[in-house]
Amino acid sequence: MNKPQISADEFAQRRKTLMQQIGNQAIAIVSAAGLKVRNRDAEYSFRQDSDFLYLSHFNEPDAILVLVPERAEGEFILFCEEKNPKIEQWTGVRAGLEGAKSLYAADESFSIKQIDQILPSLMEGKQSIYYSMASDFDFDQRVMQWLASVKKKIRQGITAPHQLINLDQVLHEMRLIKSTAEIAMMQYAANISIAVHRIAMRQCSVGQYEYEIEAYFKYAFTSYGMSEAYTSIVGGGKNACILHYINNDQTLNDKELLLIDAGAEYQAYASDITRTFPINGRFTAAQKQLYQIVLDAQRAAIAVATPNHHWDEPHQAAVAVITKGLLKLGILKADKRRSQQKNIQQLIKDEAYTPYYMHKTGHWLGLDVHDVGDYRVDGQWRTLQAGMVITVEPGLYISPSKDIDKKWWNIGIRIEDDVLITDKGNRVLTQDLIKEIDDIEALMSPS
Ligand code: GLY
Ligand code: MN
Ligand code: MN
């Protein structure tokens, strides 16, 4: 499989588009992620801030990117760590100031240590500062300090920016619509995840620990040079009912289901897949009935995940199927004075399904697993359009309750696929991963 890449031209085009949008009276500032301490001297693996990566491809901490449209000396300025062989001996090779220019196309680069002296001068004469407001309070303060240094010079005839604008408004709108290259990155992450899910499904057996399955995902993703896009959820039996279950430390029991929510991240582009299947390879009658409702709900949702439908329509479609299904099984109760249709309408209106289906049907997907972008525009649900990528992930989670027949207790099911909205409809990036009951049982049957 050829590994897709984002070209240097595309990174340059992103910066150019952003600068066109903010205009030449503005400056944009984006901070890299910092290293995070796990405990005492040990740090978590570094993960770059997605906005910073989107604009620069630069994958080091302690860096700040500045875009100054129409600046004569260069519009793209990167502040980063200088080269230092003694430190690099311990923590690895840095691009350094020359590398920032030669490898990452910065027009100018400065040591991050000089930022307090240089950045205020880049703000001089500008009207607006765009940065990601209220994401990191330390960074908010630093921006205020840089602005304060410019304001101190106003008696020398220097004008200071008088407007702070949230960069997210502009940048996240750009990130929301994926380019052809980005879609190829996401398809690649999805393809690897599909292959790993398939093997995990085939190899699963009664008596294994959940963490053995989790370990396989970690191993397999790493063997492709990737990592998890988020901490994998591997929940057997009742653990599948815990939406963000990540303990993954219980044994897998006969006649129970296993829910795996795991996706690879390829060069920071995420995939996000959930499959639920019987640990012993055969669904029980009760599991089949609930599973089929979730699958039908997912298909109904995907059918309306197309241009000209709004963001919430897939959720509404899923909720309608789930409500109808739960009513049929007697988990939701009918009011006998009403027709079936009226009952369904009322139950949907009352959100009677929420004890069993308590989350939304998806989210944007991209450089972040819960990717950026507004879900409402001018108070209305956003219309889906080509280039957006969403997840479609209905589920049912039945906790024990005296009101419900015991046969449904502790069954947790979610089915999650990644869906690209296209001009003509949609393309399910994860469609090659089986989810029909017969297909799962066939794959899991001993050969
Ligand atoms: N894996 C996180 C989610 O499905 O939203
Ligand atoms: Mn998801
Ligand atoms: Mn997921």
Structure report:
The protein has 447 residues and is α+β, with helices and mostly antiparallel strands. It has 2 domains: 8-175, Creatinase/prolidase N-terminal domain (Creatine Amidinohydrolase, Chain A, domain 1, 3-Layer(aba) Sandwich); 177-444, Alpha-Beta Complex (Creatine Amidinohydrolase). The chain is 36% helix and 18% strand. It has 13 helices and 21 strands. The protein has helices spanning 8-22, 50-56, 85-91, 96-102, 115-123, 137-151, 168-176, 180-203, 210-223, 285-303, 313-329, 340-349, 437-444, and strands spanning 26-31, 37-39, 42-43, 64-67, 76-80, 108-111, 128-131, 163-166, 227-228, 233-236, 257-262, 264-266, 269-270, 273-278, 376-377, 380-381, 389-392, 395-398, 411-414, 417-421, 426-428. The strands form 7 sheets. A 6-stranded mixed β-sheet has the order 6-5-4-1-7-8, with helices on both faces. The chain has a 3-stranded antiparallel β-sheet with strand order 9-12-13. A 3-stranded antiparallel β-sheet has the order 10-11-14. Strand 7 (128-131), helix 6 and strand 8 (163-166) form a beta-alpha-beta unit. Helix 8 crosses helix 9 (210-223) and helix 11 crosses helix 12. The longest helix is centred in the middle third of the chain and has 24 residues, at 180-203. The protein starts with 7 loop residues before the first helix and ends with a helix. Residues 272, 363, 391, 393, 416 line the site of one manganese (II) ion.
